[in-house]
Recover the amino acids of this structure.
């Protein structure tokens, strides 16, 4: 029998909370019958919605939280002034062992700050990273960091590489994931010192990783590697730029099909295929940015998502827990000695 | 009468050189009858092709160059060992005043190195930037730097903003271009110190610029601003990521239209509209990354482009020259005193 899993949900996070959170949990309940849900938030708002889902209610509990973390609140303010928020209490449930993972569609910066404070990082990890999965011409790839860390030293990038590799292997099921370091050229001398040091370590330090080398921005969607490693600034720029271009293309296509009668008829005939295309690039399917490197499973759903997207974020959390991604990261890091690594890096530059 | 313009062309740069260069010039000749062409490169390769274009030949001259800059040659090696290359000699023609501008589809890094060495930067400019034009949901935007400078201080970013603004106004014809600084969030406290300093200067230094504030990656394609300012690392990542996603979407669309008979018929009916879409996103239309901030017009065409794309790069050079972009940048910079600016920046952080 599958082991029971408990997910703590920030019922107040996201544009359409709490409805979207509860409806999302109801979808996840069918997909993952082994999951129980703890909803944190305003019980007066949660209870009436939860009462409508007869099968979800028996596997759920509601934990009242007086405060909500607003979307535009600075993380530092949230840390000091939202200690009784739904987000904070849900994260704490993972810390105390009352839950196996937390999912929130709320303020990303605040979630990272609370999670770092409450859960701490895994042994051997300097900083947690934000990771997500993207569609590529070949299949899918994992990219990290997506914005949690603006400046990263070379050892931090190497830790990202190892965490991303474990994630790709265990959550995406890639046999021997290849890892690429995002740069602005593929030659060894490209990029700044940090990135060249990180490449030297990944190449020479005998890590249990298939290092492809440097990649460029176009390699992300091309699917050149399974794991894209970058600092949080470039990663966030790549993520958001990709979202913008995808939106632009869908808009272009829409207006193309509005040009004249024949185009409209053509659109009607091709509609099933175009629907399949839309599903293929549906951002909801790729919803659920995980914080990797924390001593606990914490998944961030897009704030603007609906219940289907939120259900997918819940699935990411379930996969992380059932595949034991965190224990495997610890194991992997114990096998390598990153203490030797600065010497390799120094020698390389 | 329009003043005569002389363009120096690196006839050996690009995958399909020299044919593509000469055919491109032949298209540009019709568009811009005021232009004369100087082809630099292996005269034995150039002459037979040029002889086929009866109307191009009388407005062209061939200048033999013994050496070629290979695509994968390091810029530092090119500087030392390709002093007699077609690229170097074409750039020198601008320096000596024998040409008004240079266009090459060759090695980007080598072109930047030669151009910096030979042409030097404009007075008041620390570093040249690479700039290009991108389609957006609203119309078009200018982005810089696209990869010439990995690390940029705040004053350099401010100079990029001013150069980009002059370019948007004079080459794109935007009345009062808005300028945005690429960041990973739009709140004032986001990003690293350099970027926050640059924002403070753009906001407080009374520059002749409409500063929008921080933008994120998705704002590029959304067309939130007319000028996107960023360092060369993030700019190159954004540029290449956008190229990759565009390619992915076109591939998705192709495979959607191959699904079943109805889709194929739908495709045939919608074909004219889809062709219009393709033209709208044709990378050849946006070919021609300009080096801004050099004491001379130097345009870099994509190495993989064809003659139509190369002709567009030639048009960018003609526009830059005829609109007097460089004199206008100098004029703009003379009007402001960037010496005061470090104080504003220091006060802001």
């Amino acid at each position: 029998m599958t082991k029971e899993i408990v997910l703590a949900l920030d019922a107040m996070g996201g544009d359409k909370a709490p409805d979207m959170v509860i409806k999302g949990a109801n979808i996840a309940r069918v997909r993952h019958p082994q999951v129980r849900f703890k909803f944190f938030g305003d019980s007066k708002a949660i209870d009436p919605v939860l009462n409508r889902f007869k099968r979800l209610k028996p596997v759920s509990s509601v934990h009242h939280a007086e405060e909500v973390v607003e979307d535009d609140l600075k993380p530092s303010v949230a840390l000091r002034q939202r200690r009784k928020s739904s987000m904070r209490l849900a994260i704490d449930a993972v810390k105390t062992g009352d839950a196996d993972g937390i999912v929130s569609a709320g303020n990303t910066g605040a979630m990272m700050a609370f999670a770092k404070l409450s859960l701490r990082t895994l042994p051997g990890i300097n900083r947690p990273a934000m990771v997500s999965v993207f569609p590529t011409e070949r299949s899918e790839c994992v990219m990290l960091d997506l914005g949690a860390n603006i400046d990263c030293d070379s050892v931090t990038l190497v830790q990202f590489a190892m965490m991303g590799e474990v994630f790709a292997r265990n959550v995406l099921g890639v046999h021997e994931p290849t890892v690429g370091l995002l740069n602005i050229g593929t030659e060894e001398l490209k990029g700044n010192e940090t990135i060249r040091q990180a490449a030297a370590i990944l190449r020479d330090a005998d890590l249990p990783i298939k290092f492809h080398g440097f990649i460029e921005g176009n390699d992300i969607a091309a699917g050149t590697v399974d794991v894209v490693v970058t600092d949080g600034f470039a990663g966030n720029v790549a993520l958001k730029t990709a979202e913008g271009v995808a939106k632009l293309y869908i808009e272009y296509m829409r207006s193309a099909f509005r040009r004249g009668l024949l185009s409209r008829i053509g659109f009607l005939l091709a509609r099933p295929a175009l629907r399949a295309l839309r599903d293929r690039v549906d951002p909801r399917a790729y919803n659920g940015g995980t914080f990797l490197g924390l001593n606990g499973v914490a998944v961030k759903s897009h704030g603007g998502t609906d219940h289907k997207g939120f259900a997918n974020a819940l699935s990411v959390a379930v996969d992380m827990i059932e595949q034991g991604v965190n224990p495997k990261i610890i194991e992997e890091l114990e096998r390598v000695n990153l203490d030797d690594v600065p010497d390799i890096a120094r020698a390389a530059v």
User: Anything to note?
Assistant: Chain B has a mean pLDDT of 89. Chain B touches chain A through 65 residues (CB under 8 Å). DSSP finds 13 helices and eleven strands in chain B. The domain at 1-119 of chain B is CATH 3.40.718.10 (Isopropylmalate Dehydrogenase).
